[in-house]
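Page 37, top half.
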Amino acid sequence: MQSISYARQQFPPEVIRYAIWLYLRFTLSYRDVEELLAERGLEVSYETVRRWVLKFGSVIARKLHQRRPRPTGIWHLDEMVISIQGRRMYLWRAVDSEGEILNVHVQARRDKSAALKLARKLLKKQGFAPGVLVTDKLTSYGAAKRELGLSAHHEQGLRKNNRAENSHQVVRRRERKLQGFKSAGSA
């Protein structure tokens, strides 16, 4: 992959990367990033930070994703209820045993077909089947596992899936910061 071109940018690449990192790593608004940069003596408007995130954010994320090591063989699957423009939706999430997010899927239903869609996307994206699946007691996961013919050990339990439950905290913070999600993409 080619390196990122920061041509025709007024600020050095280090400042741009730092501003993008601040916005994406912490639950900060564009105006918060503007204030943090102003404390360091950099006059940057929040609109400039927004343009940087839109232009360079996805490219930087893709480069980081390529350098990420292969996920572990223990996958935690979970779903959570979110509201998108007043409609009740489910955010399905897969996390490995180290807390790395493997896949995210927004669906209107909480049934076997939604769990099956998450599992298919996950297997296609990762390229290998897990050794252990850890879920809550939703029966849709077991039905999807049977339909796909996965030989992974399926663990279910009340607190066994805390790894996936903890990964939802970031989404909840972002939801509060944005005062609710406006689209599935923002979720």
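Page 37, bottom half:
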Amino acid sequence: MREMATSGLFADFLFGFGALFAIINPYGLAFIFLDKTRGLSEEERAGLALRVAGYAFVVLLVSQFLGSQILNFFGVTIPALRIAGGLVVAATGWSMLHAPSGPAEPHEASSSDLATMKRMAFFPLTIPLTTGPGTIATAIAIGISRTDSLDAMFASSIVSLLVAIAVTAAIYHAYRKSSAMARMFGEEGTSVVTKLSAFLLLCIGVQIIITGGSEVARSVLDSASRTVQ
């Protein structure tokens, strides 16, 4: 019985980690993170990566344990979250597509540069680029799926914590090694991957908006159908 419970918890961990890792795609976002931190030194970029990973960890934990309660308190629906987040993601992808491409010249960043990047660590680097509306919605769904049994709830809470830690570690590693991956691809390859990532980011933002709009339209149609009946 204990082995079955352990295997079930391990399966829950794999499911939660796989779902969040696939949605976040930290190694794909690493090139966008590198583009946004153009000009920072390796140490400064590593520090910013750690800050973003820390914020992402908090967002994942809050979403899993308190996400549904917070949305209900403010009267925010998941479709509204998707549409708002999708607009920001799409706008970011669009601006990156039209940004001039070129090598990131490392230099001694001024205190104002570092202060600006630190302010960007939470928005938009963490929300919505890293832990966007899709990630938050998925984390909320994982949190809602907990059972009412006290023992099972405690075990699933530990699993949720481990999932958040593992995903955060992947985010930090990807962002911390973004410049190394760029050197591996070379200047031209990095430019191509960055533009492709920006285009995919634009597409993801549009898809999130479409999904949220479809959910709103479906809700309106269902409500109208019930009224007619």
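Margin note: The chain has eight helices and no strands.
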